[in-house]
Amino acid sequence: MVSHLFMNVEETVSVILFGIGFTMLLLHQNLIKKIMGMNIMDTAVYLFLAAKGYIRGRMVPIVVDGVREVSAYINPVPSGLVLTGIVVSVSTTALMLALTIRLYERYGSLDLDEILTRAKEEEKA
Fold first, then answer.
1. Which long-range contacts (CB under 8 A, 24 or more apart) does 116-121 make?
2. Positive or negative: CA dihedral 29, 31, 36, 39
3. Model's pTM, two decimal places?
4. d(Cα 27, Cα 15) in Å, to the nearest integer?
């Protein structure tokens, strides 16, 4: 059992990272910590995809020295998914941070419970 974990160390690390990020997302009330948890989860998924797409002994899918056999190259789809995911992740993080700044300016706190309490008080008034 333990030897399988060490054989697949990248996948094991990605699962642990995902768990850390998910725990941060669920247990912390601070919005910045929730954003950090989302980013850790994103990174775990990218690591997992990159680890699954890599095949030892194969090259990047760029024709070099006239080698055209498919078996000489790795699959480019996981790499493309990771690059696309990084772009989406950066823009999503930027949007979340911008909304967090607006919430802080309006309610004076980054604590989610406090923001919800103040928003309900505003709604009643």
1. none
2. positive
3. 0.84
4. 18
Query: Rg (Cα) of the chain, in Å, rounded?
Result: 21
The SS3 of residue 42 is helix
Q: Domain range spanning residue 26? A: 2-124
Residue type, 80: G
Spatial CA neighbour of 57 closest among 70, 75, 72: 72
Tokens of 121: 């008080």
How many domains does the chain contain in total? 1
pLDDT of 31 above 70: yes
Residue 2: other Cβ atoms inside 10 A: 6
Distance, CA of 75 to CA of 71 (rounded, Å): 10
CATH of the domain at 113: 1.10.287.3510
pLDDT digits (tens, 9 = 90+) for 52-90: 887 787 777 777 777 777 777 888 888 889 999 999 999
